Amino acid sequence: MNLKQFFLLIFCVASYNAVFSQAPEIQFNHVSTSKGLSQSSVIAIQQDKLGQMWFGTRDGLNKYDGNSFTIYRNIAEDKTSISNNDILSILEDKDGFIWVGTYNGLNKYDPKTNTFTNYFHNNKSNSLSNNTIWAIKEMSNGEIWIGTSNGLSIYNKTKDSFTNVFHQIKSSQSISGNHILSILETKDQTIWIGTTSGLSKFSNNKNGYYVFKNYTTLNDNFSPLSIQDLSESRGNKLLIASKNNGVLFFNTTKNKIEKYLPENLQNEVSKDIRQLVFDDKEALWIGTYNGLHILDKKKKLRTLKNQKNNSKSLSKNSIKSILKDKKGSIWIGTYYGGLNIWDDENVNFINFSEAGNTKKLSYNVVSSIENYEKKLFIGTEGKGINIFDTKTNELKYLLPDTNVKSLFVNKSELWIGTFNKGIAIFDIENNTFKNDKETKKFVNY
């Protein structure tokens, strides 16, 4: 390698924030009240057939088309408005109606008329069992199953009426509890109910009496399980988000509930699990009151929490709702932190800049880039060289007061062309210089 060949490799890129392709980093975009969200606690998320997103907050129902919000609130004396502003659950049924559960009443929204039909509990036997609605699911037969604070209500569209199912103390075949937080129909059309008193599997309807098989404890512990969410994996495994026992699953071979996480990870995840969602790569997203965990197919765990100086981190650690949309993006609702959105297609780059938080570039004017095995050498016009280890994600700094004009790797040597300071040759393997033009040590910037 002669000097003529070396200087042919000189190039200069004027003033930009360097961006290098790496394994996807979890970075979130955020939607908050400053962008039109009615309130910053997002309790429920749903996507309709048109691709619009629906968010339930503590102060109103929000429809989001990607650009702007339409907010629905209760209007006194208007019976066609939503019954209550404190939203707990949302569902779009097969007919395109949006069902909304609140702290005071169930609502069916008709997009064609832009009106709500309200349903309340009253003294009639075919009315709603209770006005606080935690879960809404449409079954394959068209029935709408509604989990309330006092019983299960099953809505018949043809009759426009409810059949109510309650826990019976004297019957082991009744539903496990009356406070119902989650409902799921699996791919094989099995219906599971999560209550504050355990898991119930629907068996059949005998002349109007709903029969269940109940699983109320973990490992024969006397303390009943409180189940907050249910999710099914691609392999048809039923996963359970519990209030006090972490992530569980139903072992179909043993016909019992067991712990899902490997022993070495159980203490790394909160015991209070709010939501479970599988993404398109079969990684499990675990929402808790103290951060977000992502468990990949190989059972490797990543933990994400709010980072004060990182605008792309989780907005708040208290997570209430998670949804995977039709595109595969993950939407995360938090308490008082609005929405977090992760889109795999938009996070294939790690950003480096002088103003960065986790990847702080020494200077924004980048003159040259070279690589050697697992290291990237980034030359700047003012503050030396940044060395990024792609294996450990660590940044180190070399020649901090130097205007670097060009870099070239020849075998294990880094040739450094500088402004007014000549050429330095750095031995990458031994971390030393082969001449005495510059300092022989790494410097932390």
Automatic annotation (TrEMBL):
Q: Which Gene3D superfamilies does its entry note?
A: YVTN repeat-like/Quinoprotein amine dehydrogenase
Family matches, as Pfam families: Reg_prop (PF07494)
Molecular functions (GO terms): phosphorelay sensor kinase activity
Question: Keyword annotations for this protein?
Answer: Phosphoprotein, Signal
Does Signal count among this protein's keywords?
A: yes
Which residues are the signal sequence here? 1-23
* Entry-linked InterPro entries: Quinoprotein_ADH-like_sf, Reg_prop, WD40/YVTN_repeat-like_dom_sf
UniProt name for this protein: Hybrid sensor histidine kinase/response regulator
Q: Which organism is this entry from?
A: Polaribacter filamentus
